[in-house]
Design goal:
Helices cover about 20% and strands about 20% of the residues. The protein is an alpha/beta fold and about 525 residues long. Helix 5 runs parallel beside helix 6 and helix 7 packs across helix 8 (about 315-330). The model has no long low-confidence stretch (mean pLDDT about 95). The protein binds beta-D-glucopyranose.
Length: about 525
Amino acid sequence: MPPAENGSWLTDAVIYEIYPQSFQDTNGDGIGDLRGVIDRLDYIASLGVDAIWFNPCFASPFFDAGYDVADYLQIAPRYGTNDDMVELIDKARERGIRIILDLVAGHTSIEHEWFQVELHADGPSPEGDRYIWREDEPASGWANDVPGQPAWVRSPGPRQGWYLKNFYDEQPALNFGWVEPDPAHPWRQPVDAPGPLRNQQALKDILDFWLGKGVAGFRVDMAFSLVKDEGLFQGWIASSAIWRNIREWLDEAYPDAVLIPEGEEPRTGERLAFDADFMLVIHAPHASLFDDQSAGILPWHESRRPFFGAAGEGSTGMFLDTWALYREAEPERKVIIATADHDFNRLRAGRTPEELRTAFTFLFTWGSVPSLYFGDEIGMRYLPDMPNVEGAICNPSYNRAGARTPMQWDATENAGFSTAAAEDLYLPIDPDPDRPTVAAQDGVEGSTLSFVRELVALRRQHPELQGHASTTVVHAGYPFAWLRGENYLVVVNPRREAAAIETTAGAGMTPIFGSGAELTEGGVEVEGFGYGIFAR
Ligand code: BGC
């Protein structure tokens, strides 16, 4: 793998997200492990992906599936050892695949030694507190219980008072300071107080440790949750400054390493700290395209009619408006668009394999960086009513477990995921006797797996279908049509009913991929669920 310059490899990459708990168990404990990923590397390579993004795989009590880290420098024993990770990095590299880990930057586990030391201290640390502690009783307005909202949690002692959490109670917020310190509230320390500076250094130390072992970069969990009294309206200026400082250090130490925030990096007018943005699965633009919200309804979702739906009642409007904003500010911006992720619905979401094809065609030919969530390549479904394993249920109408069930490999016991007893599995396997599996689809013409492999291969083969080339919308409704660069036209019709448009965009082009889509004299005609890629 030739060293790319400053993370530019990411622009044309395809990412594969692995939720480590659910990919492949090799020691029979019912939970996936790194050996399992190593054993499956040839499969992963066969998808044509360039990078694997792992959800956190560090030592943790797993109150939040590992997003509560107890030791950033230690692989969780249930996944294996640090040596296994190094072996995985090396063997993946041999196949041209990079490894991206997940950095939980805004909080730790209550079991992290840093927290335990402060919990057992009499008062503030002389070196600066790593967490945010107060002794005065918080105003009741703070005491909300919404995961992801900062709120005060009463200290279980011996230290008196309250600590600030970042997500669940078991995830105390790390102290990165406040924009507006307040002497009346000594816990509101400036961003350059000793505690916050220690934590900034700790982030560099963690990055250094893993990048030194050959990791290619990090997805950063809740990246803009660092400085507590800023947010969307304040522009996250202080949190961005911390990341910019880290990026500047990386530029010297590991120039090719990529940092990807969860979500979108706020534009502050200064140089960017991150290498890409995420158009998150739980966010409205993504949901308006794909999500039927069976995993849960989040307040900012406005429609239950995704554009990629047989009824044909959705719109690309919200997605395209957001995309245009991104591109206006920065034409070269890398935007990651995932099929799904560990926090929300799967792409399948009630779609038939036939319907999935238009969605995949879009995802792998749009000018974004595609991220394929493990199992989506065979059309695994979101499983409703799964138990609340490792904090999966955030609120009664939002259950993430259904998107985290084990990979379905073959027709053997537990779908080849594990030899453990069914009741000992991390989460149940899809009980449907017709559940999709890799074995049933591998090498089978017309299967979802073959379709995904073909599309990813096509993207690799035609550079203008990757991230660098421009994306120009030709038609925003049904059928959805866009040009890539100068020489490619892509058309998808995600609805049941046929659709046609008049356009000269495809003049002089011939089909290179597709089904049910045809260039006519004056335009394009696409059958229901049809798709096509045309090239000059
Ligand atoms: C992760 C979630 C996690 C939360 C708290 C999110 O961004 O994707 O899975 O529960 O952060 O760390």
